[in-house]
Amino acid sequence: MKTDLVDSECAHRLYPRSAVADPAEARRQLRSGAFAGLRSSVRGVAEYAGRARGTEAGAALGAGFLNALEGLDVELLRASRSQEPLGEGTRSKFEACSAALTALIGAVPEEELEAARRVLQVARNSAEGDNNADLNQTEVDKLKQLL
Fold first, then answer.
1. 64 with 47: CB under 8 angstroms?
2. Dihedral through CA 98, CA 104, CA 105, CA 106, nearest 10?
């Protein structure tokens, strides 16, 4: 399933529980760790999706996500400055981000997503010290070609 790439950590980072208690910290989290390069990564995925499909749809979907993310960021900034509790507006901004990211990922061909999942799994296994991670030489060669 394509939306497997949008895991619970991603959703948690876009709208963490801490956002309710500290919107400024939530904004900081959207710019750190795995999300530090989010904006440029989304642009890259959008460009790739557009080329793979031969349409401008990827660029539009990427722009849609970036606009939704900006809306969430502005909402968090407003809340942090006013020190008001987050309301339903923030939740709807989060849901718009999530839906836009899901739509963008849906524009990437399934076989390419499978390759990306495999690369991520190898990277995770490598980070955990399991370099053998049930890969045969053919799979290793395929991953090297992708990189």
1. no
2. 110
Is there a contact between 116 and 144 (Cβ–Cβ < 8 Å)?
A: no
E strands, the chain, in order? none
pLDDT tens for 83-116 read 877 778 888 898 999 999 999 888 888 888 888 8
- Token pair of 75, please? 């909402």
The answer to whether residues 130 and 87 touch, using CB atoms and an 8 Å cutoff, is no
* pTM > 0.70: yes or no: no
Contact 62, 104 (CB under 8 A): yes
For the segment 36-58, the average pLDDT, to the nearest whole number, is 82
In contact, 81 and 144? CB cutoff 8 Å: no
